Amino acid sequence: MDIYRDINLSFNNSEDQDVKKSKIDIPDSKKSKIKVSENSNLKNIKEMGTQNIPSISNNIQFLTIIGHVEGHSASPPQNKSTKYEHIIPQLVAIEQNDSVEGFLVILNTVGGDVEAGLAIAEMIASLSKPTVSLVLGGSHSIGVPLATSCKYSYIVPTATMTIHPIRMNGLVIGVPQTFKYFQKMQERIIDFVTRTSKISREKLVDLMNETDEIANDIGTILIGEKAVALGLIDEVGGLDKALKKLNDMIMEERKKKEKTKTKEDHGDDEKVGNDEEILS
Questions:
Q1: Distance separating alpha carbons of residues 108 and 161, to the nearest angstrom
Q2: pTM of this prediction?
Q3: What is 60-253's CATH number?
Q4: How many Å apart are CA 235 and CA 150, to the nearest integer?
Q5: Which residue of the set 68, 140, 164, 197 is catalytic?
Q6: DSSP E strand boundaries for the chain
Q7: In this predicted model, what pLDDT tens digit does every residue of 19-40 receive, in sequence order?
Q8: Labelling 112: which of 11, 47, 182, 276 has CA 20 to 30 A away?
Q9: Residues 6 or more apart from 2 whose CB is under 8 A from it?
């Protein structure tokens, strides 16, 4: 036992010596150069896989709606999702912020929860500021009303949009009642899309109920120019066109505000003149 103890002690002593040898004193002047972990660019590459986006003071706010539109139930952890409880406060802040003059929505979504998607779409449609949407990759299912919610919409030539009737997962209790509820919810989507785009109600319903387009589902897949030809999207274009259109809309909005302000100033001047005449 004493022999083993001596051997263990000798090993421990040698390990301690190796650890002491590995510790190198670094001068304070060089420590600042070795603090790699404090580099914000490297931190962002480690966490997000990309460098920091340059901060540019701009009057345009943009929002990305990607993956699955999450509703009252959380999406599986492996799915990318957009949460409506994150989006709605941002929209309220954009509406109240005077420095933000325009809003760009970039979409690449598979769809998701109907009520959450409609809630976001209604919020975007009710913004008083110029809004433009850009469909990249795809804007399927409830992504359709999200794409049409802006005042002007773009789609890139290779992007797709899938239009289909609403679906439901889980247990169905009472088939007639559930079917009526489905009809009411479907009407909400149809009413919103026809209100915020140029497509006719009849054509939209026909596209939803198409049976020859998708092998294992009901609906229609629209690609780029087809979505524009049917009046669902306003124009085919990419980021350059979307930003140019948004800037043009911002300039028009500025001109309207200037005219309104000029009229109000003239009205105040006339009121002051009338008051002076009465006093004289």
A1: 10
A2: 0.73
A3: 3.90.226.10
A4: 13
A5: 164
A6: 60-70, 81-83, 102-112, 131-139, 152-155, 160-163, 220-223, 235-236
A7: 444 455 555 555 444 444 456 6
A8: 47
A9: none
